[in-house]
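Lab notebook, design round three. We kept the backbone fixed and only want residue identities now. Task for the bench partner: fill in a sequence for the structure below.
Input structure tokens:
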């Protein structure tokens, strides 16, 4: 797994992140824990996202298709990790907006 980023500030709004997703599992550490996030898949291929565990990313169960978005809101600071990946041989551009 690849650890790409840790946030060290408290409070406020996270600026948009652009993440190039490949077949390798991408791990984003959200520190401090996030309350919510929105993931936009700009494509061209499906992305398999997961929160706090890498089950969906590892097993390619439920895709977030190109042009779709996913809103995750726990209303408490419970998002510690985001995981995502594409199927073998595929890539996608993803934008993530998180709040803490």
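Proposed sequence:
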């Amino acid at each position: 797994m690849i650890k790409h980023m840790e946030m060290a500030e408290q409070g406020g709004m996270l600026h948009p992140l652009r993440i190039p997703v490949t077949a390798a599992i991408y791990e984003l550490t959200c520190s401090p824990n996030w309350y919510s996030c929105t993931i936009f898949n700009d494509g061209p291929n499906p992305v398999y996202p997961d929160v706090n565990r890498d089950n969906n990313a590892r097993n390619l169960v439920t895709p977030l298709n190109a042009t779709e978005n996913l809103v995750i809101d726990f209303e408490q600071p419970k998002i510690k990790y985001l995981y995502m990946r594409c199927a073998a041989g595929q890539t996608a551009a993803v934008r993530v907006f998180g709040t803490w």
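Keep this in mind before ordering anything: The chain has a mean pLDDT of 88.
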